[in-house]
Amino acid sequence: MAYYNSRVPGLGAEFLAEVERTTALAVEHPMLGAIFDEGVRRLMMRRFPYLLIYQAIADEVLVLAVSHQSRRPGYWRSRG
Question: Is the pTM of this model over 0.90?
């Protein structure tokens, strides 16, 4: 968010809104995301080059990462 705000004032808020929209979509339709790994799914964001990486566990959605699409796959795993 800070990065986008440093580029264009207000763009960070738009990025956050897109993260929240994508998260709400995952909560409402947890099986919608493409399978990324065993038990892990991903949803692409519309306007920004990021993926929402999440797990649907019972009636909850656990967001694991907001991952940039140009980074190497799984780079976020060691940040837990």
Answer: no
